[in-house]
Input
Amino acid sequence: MARKRIGLWLIGAKGAVAATAITGWIALKKGLVGPRGLVSEMPPFADLGLVAWKDLVIGGHEIRDASLVESAEAMQATSGMLSTRDLARCRTELLKVERNIRPGTVLNVGPTIEQLAGAGVRRRREKARTVVRRLQDDLKAFIDQHRLDNVVVVNVASTEPPTEADVLPARWSALSKALDRATPCGVPASSLYAIAALDLGLPYVNFTPSLGSAAPAIDELARQRGTVHVGRDGKTGETLLKSVLAPMFAHRNLEVMSWVGHNIFGNMDGQVLDSPANKRSKVASKDQVLSQTLGYQPQTLVSIEYVESLGDWKTAWDHIHFRGFLGTPMTMQFTWQGCDSLLAAPLVLDLVRLTERAHRAGSLGSLDFLASFFKSPYGVETSDFFEQFAMLIKWSSGVATR
Amino acid sequence: MARKRIGLWLIGAKGAVAATAITGWIALKKGLVGPRGLVSEMPPFADLGLVAWKDLVIGGHEIRDASLVESAEAMQATSGMLSTRDLARCRTELLKVERNIRPGTVLNVGPTIEQLAGAGVRRRREKARTVVRRLQDDLKAFIDQHRLDNVVVVNVASTEPPTEADVLPARWSALSKALDRATPCGVPASSLYAIAALDLGLPYVNFTPSLGSAAPAIDELARQRGTVHVGRDGKTGETLLKSVLAPMFAHRNLEVMSWVGHNIFGNMDGQVLDSPANKRSKVASKDQVLSQTLGYQPQTLVSIEYVESLGDWKTAWDHIHFRGFLGTPMTMQFTWQGCDSLLAAPLVLDLVRLTERAHRAGSLGSLDFLASFFKSPYGVETSDFFEQFAMLIKWSSGVATR
Amino acid sequence: MARKRIGLWLIGAKGAVAATAITGWIALKKGLVGPRGLVSEMPPFADLGLVAWKDLVIGGHEIRDASLVESAEAMQATSGMLSTRDLARCRTELLKVERNIRPGTVLNVGPTIEQLAGAGVRRRREKARTVVRRLQDDLKAFIDQHRLDNVVVVNVASTEPPTEADVLPARWSALSKALDRATPCGVPASSLYAIAALDLGLPYVNFTPSLGSAAPAIDELARQRGTVHVGRDGKTGETLLKSVLAPMFAHRNLEVMSWVGHNIFGNMDGQVLDSPANKRSKVASKDQVLSQTLGYQPQTLVSIEYVESLGDWKTAWDHIHFRGFLGTPMTMQFTWQGCDSLLAAPLVLDLVRLTERAHRAGSLGSLDFLASFFKSPYGVETSDFFEQFAMLIKWSSGVATR
Amino acid sequence: MARKRIGLWLIGAKGAVAATAITGWIALKKGLVGPRGLVSEMPPFADLGLVAWKDLVIGGHEIRDASLVESAEAMQATSGMLSTRDLARCRTELLKVERNIRPGTVLNVGPTIEQLAGAGVRRRREKARTVVRRLQDDLKAFIDQHRLDNVVVVNVASTEPPTEADVLPARWSALSKALDRATPCGVPASSLYAIAALDLGLPYVNFTPSLGSAAPAIDELARQRGTVHVGRDGKTGETLLKSVLAPMFAHRNLEVMSWVGHNIFGNMDGQVLDSPANKRSKVASKDQVLSQTLGYQPQTLVSIEYVESLGDWKTAWDHIHFRGFLGTPMTMQFTWQGCDSLLAAPLVLDLVRLTERAHRAGSLGSLDFLASFFKSPYGVETSDFFEQFAMLIKWSSGVATR
Output
């Protein structure tokens, strides 16, 4: 089999997660760093024939006037990833990726994100169909220019205000027609990117809480076009811990009376989430893990607050009040101090490899077995991280033996 | 099938864990409390035909001059378990159990525990064989008096100083002879209780870090007598969390650089552990979880300190220093504030039911499937709580379908 | 000098703080507990001639249909204060105090508090003047019945929504006229109680964030009537710590970049504060300490959330992000797990003694030297707890030498 | 008055604290950083005529074969102080300081420190007197070469094992004779440096828990030579917080039942403290703050553990168990994550300025007013940080008005 060349197309390609993923990928290829933090580099996935890092080409859409190199330098200053010297070694390659980045769309992203958009992004009201076509032209040009066998489109853009999935028509035929209407169709940008990708038969990954491909009509499109999609909202910190700890309380028959989680951080994602509408998407995504695992609904509180001085360092404090035998209340508290983009970036790279592999193996529609990567995995019943991880291992065994 | 009457024989029957387990069992029978905190009361175990609470009879050995009622009242004052009124309702039954408690042995328990012993416990040097016979006489009298079908012996006594398993002869035949020697044989009390029970064909559970039945020769005895045993060291707090969190770091390919755990508490267990020799047993038991799960040995520190004011409230602070993609160090910290005896007591009751059931089902020797209850499960390779719990569920399905 | 008999009149006399203060006072008089937690019992105040506990008589206003004995029992169950037996010993005296409790007013308390009011509280719209007269009649009857030399009125009722001080007329003459108007005057209940007390020449203490006597017109009234007042918002937990820690950062020239404080608790105070309007009063009161001490405004976040399972246990997590020499960010976090009413009640008793003593010594108007007891002390510039405490010591020396 | 040129002579001149202080001083002079973190730069000290940064010259003693530039680069990598670029700008000046660094002595430093010494340090057993003379020759050469008006000698070397002060003769005459003996005199290196400095009339600051000038005989020497000294053990983290929080508990009449403090960190200081003998010095220094402030001795635990991955990031967890009115136990916990050298370095620079100023103003012997900088201030009764800080302010006013 000839080696495949695979594209990774990032929506939000100059943001912190994207800049970290791109820089990290370059550092990996150059041997400046090892495979730590990458799930797909662990032994169970060694024989799957995942795409090699050197066979990846990266491009993307971005709405801001930003410099990828500067984004990477800012991340380096905040997070301490790589040394200044090693980052300098990645510069030429970063500039090469930057040349593959095209202006995105702000259609239906809401006012908070819209005001981040640079002059290069057309602010006039376009028809949704026009936008989709333009996005597809960008993807097709990327494929042609780099002679790619496939492109995985990954959304790592800022979180949009919530759009309930049922606002969109249930069937693809109806949704497709809606895109042609001159009047605003309400389909958020994240879904337009998804449609653009899936309609071309390309896999799509929604790493954010935005709607993306989470509507039945879009899943239908994916299946029609013979491709796959997965989401949503990468599970990197507090929610990961919830999905790990809640099963422990459940298996010990301990009653969780209340679970309070306060998250503070100061990157651009935090700035966008500081807008109440955008924050709603995120909080909803973080808050369903418990009832699913415990079988009842404890009192929960989830806050996400923008604290500028923290930059990319997401700090979460969780207070879990529980009781067991004879009813005495007890307490567990944790604090998590993680550098958000450094936790997210390797998962983005993993998802490209695993999604591409599933597509190659003939999967269709949403990919259940990737649930452990997401806060709100499409159509998956369990919130238990270890059950979700077992699904990944099982899929991997299945693919490996084929 | 006629209803079975099952005995629970507690070694350390007036200590905090025993007093809590006994009080809780009485409260359960009286309907004063529900089944929260009891693993064996959860749906997966509903059809196993576990012994009913009302069919249990409790007795035990104790070396201290103490009052069970007073122990229960002290626990109530410290932990707030039950109301004063409900505790008063349990008084008559507590006195009934107290009449089933016999003086234990202090042979080879080490000086710290020895000085806790009351006048009722013979301090003269007996031969090990004599001690075992006396313990067996107590067990046989208990069985006769209450016409019991089986008795599960559970060690919840104070932690002895470490006795390495290889100090004991590897074969039962040799160990049995050593018990007959007039000179001190070095077999710790916890093992004498185990031998007494297993030699009578009774199941034995080691809920402490003491040696108990953890020697090959004693496992051989259990198999010869057609019975079962399991241990050691009930997993109730910090180590439970280690066995839950370490797999998360492993599955995300995050490198744990260091894991520091400081435990403070002030009950009698704490007092005994304040003695360096006794503490060594405990720390060893708590510190092996990580390397087993992670596949490498991070720097670890485990301290257990006696802080009188905390009473039964075991407080643990853990600091986990880890790094992933691109090497930036990150931190998770947790504090656990649990009432130790309230966490341990229901597990003791669960283990009686599950061990008795396995014995009834024809198991032999040490019971792997109960690994999730222990810090250092005999002969089990995995330290991953969820893998261990899956073993329990699998056993349960197997038994249920028989 | 004949011994003085002093009254303590509690607004919110059956709430958690009041029930705790009353029960504690009875226990103190009976010698069931010692003086721990009482500032006024420390050596610097030994020679001030403060009123003896046995010379106090307690009564108050309350709007809810509640039982003082039941409130005390509920507090005992939640907080573990006293033993069940000792509480029973206080019962007769509690019932005696209960007979001194009269229905309060809900005029301008806002809807959240209004719906807590019992049938005994007149819900029809009265003129403010009528309300004040009725409150004064209750106070006068209390004085007469118990032949009291003085009465200190202390507000420990639920927090009202904010009323800006400048909404009220600046002069007492104008405010007094407003009380006579038939149309609603907007003066909140907390201020009506203050007016009722001060107009009778009685000292008034505002232990809550409600307006109370914090308006210039009411201070004028106090001075005219030759009496004293002080407030507001007892400093018992997180804010106490802010006023202790912020000076440390200031004195070491460390820059506090952000200070986030999340408070969770589940008592009635918490329920009332769950209403956004009422919460605003509290958050404003908690948030000014830092800028005053540091000399600049770091980014701050203060949340107060109702978490039912916590009851009276107020848990605060504070995250302080600071930097010093060469600019590297560092972090201090603390969690405070305090039983709110147990921390507040002794301060209420202290304030009665100290306020009465200042009144006796001829002070007039607001009492600066009590600033260390309050989150937002009237007219005091410093938020530094230790500077505030030095003011108390200095006053004490002055009074003692007179 | 002609501008004074003042020397700072660091014992341990290439260690982390020294490298940070030197780099920071260069950055200050170059205007690369502001005065944050420097106490002496705050308004109360503006008019004292403290030595200007540009009038300082730095040199010192060091026992290790190390490079100051590399030490500074290592600190930059660990702590993120300055940017790589700004550090590069300091390089020339760092090399200039490095030329002023002379080999120190390892006489009586104990085996842990001794094995750190480089080839340049004479390991043969010298007479103490010979060592002192050599150290003095270095100081005199430094003064001559840079035409200095004064030199402040500051000990920032690794912590020696404890030498009880009473091991040394009580009088300087006797101690002086002991230095001449051929047999080992037991006077630790830290004291030899102190003697060398004070005997030349130079001020001496002991920033470590080592003995230094803490013996009466050495204080006598200082007074005889008309100079000043101060120590010991810079108060930068956990103990600073103890000295801030303990007064709060005292002033609220809250009983501290237990105070547990666990410290973890991984720099060279930590490595040396990992040796039990050296650790004893430190723990003793950290553990006396509480009883002094509270007036009674709560149960305390202080641990310091070496955790390599933390580098210079000292993390402390403190658990404070207290009770107040009616006896219910409550809890405060804090975690402190500070970069140790960045907290210590500015205090070193402050102490040089303040000590030199006191010397200039005619002070003699140990300097009480600097107590707020130290864990165990020589001869000062109060452990209350705010009382100590008030002493500094008072001294400052006295000097300013002269």
In short: The radius of gyration of chain D is 21 Å. Chain D has a mean pLDDT of 92. Residues 80 and 266 of chain D are 16 Å apart (CA to CA).
